[in-house]
Design goal:
By secondary structure, this protein is of the alpha+beta class. The protein has 18 helices and 17 strands. This is histidine kinase.
Length: about 525
Amino acid sequence: METSHEAFNGSGGNLEHHLDIYLKALNSANSGIIITDNTQPDNPIIYCNKAFETITGYSHNEIIGHNCRFLQSQDRAQPERNILKECIEEGKECRVEIRNYKKNGKLFWNELYVSPVQNDAGEVTHFIGVQNDITDRKRAEYELREEKASVEKKIQTRTQELIDNQAFLSSIIHTVRESLLVLDAKFVVISANTHFLNTFKVSAEDTVGTLLFELGNHQWDIEALKDLLIKILPTNNPVIDFEVEHDFPHIGKKIMLLNAYRVEFEGQYKDRILIAIEDITDKTEIDRRKDDFLSIASHELKTPLTTIKGLVQLLQRMPPEGASEKYLSTLDKVGNYVDRLNNLITELLDTSKIQSGNIELHNEPFIIDKTIKDTVESLSLATHDYKVELSGITNASILGDELQISQVLNNLISNAIKYSPGEEKVDVHVSRVGDFVKISVTDYGMGISPHDKTKIFDRFFRARDIQKKFPGLGIGLYISHEIIANHKGSLWVESEIGKGSTFSFTLPIMKVDDNGK
């Protein structure tokens, strides 16, 4: 208060008394109030009330002597600063809304009123500044503007979407190299693309506006297709890769993959069904020919290979007199490579049987624990560098093809050894899980990427990095997967790159009446 008294340089007790009252009144105000001395260089602050300290976060001693622009910190490009500067230079009143910053750096919006104080000679000696924190109001105004702009933008966007949807959908339908149909809720064709018309040899006039099942003299009256479509609208679930085989009157037999989706557009579109039809007739025929070729080639290779294997075994049992160690070791290598080739051909034969549906199951009851133990022991003898540890017991019997189950386990353990170079251990664990037996094979090798895990059981699939380092056809896991599926079990993998993999499969435990007893 002494600074303020000196600033006004009042004389006489009556003046000081009135000044005390004025200053007390200013201190009780809710608005921040400052007084600056325009007679001094840079117009410094010589008084501030308590509200100003509260609003800014600065104490009285940290405020006095500063020019009020210190509250703008580094935010000096505001045009309001120039307005204030001009008003002060011209000695005029002004009002601005300006960004200020508290002592802790937090932004607040300040509504500032500046008024000049003149002496008897008409000279501006002081300025009085009254400020209010309008941050909440500014925030509300900003949010209101943003909301308004957002709503306007959404209205414009949605309006444009409604205008464009028909043209956009139509352009997609007519440019995609796949047969596409759009149906309404009653399965009447709204649109058909050129590919559909050409593939099924129908005209647009005979297609659009016609019930799907009545197209081409009822050639699309397919029971499986009816079942598919009737289930779409109520459930809102898409139908993916639904295979339909049908003999059309004019174009012959077609094998098709159908994908169907329910489509909803607000406004003029509602309850539309989009059907994408992929003609896989040629692809299916090519796959069949390829499988036939694999089957024939494998059979043709099997006969001479069996002869070669028999001759090698004969030479191994009856080596020439005085045969050198090199001769014998070379003969052993030939035998090993013949065995490898024989295994590859056997896998190819199994693949072709699976694809043609001719794989045979010789179901007999067998004790799974013994099968697993025998398979592990056989592999342990053949792989001295690896320790295959078996744990767990089920005391369960399985109704199935014991040789095929042993083949699956053999394949999984062999892969575990093959794809974990430098490691020394593979774990095999067996346990009961509900009505199933679960067998897990764990290695501590290179692991499988998430992308490759989705395709690991596909026929002929091999990851690129594995393809370069390890030989193989990529059909062992495919065969294993199909064998387990035929036994009403499941095969899956859990893996992380660099941390190894665990392949697990389940088999249903034989019930008393499974064997007809």
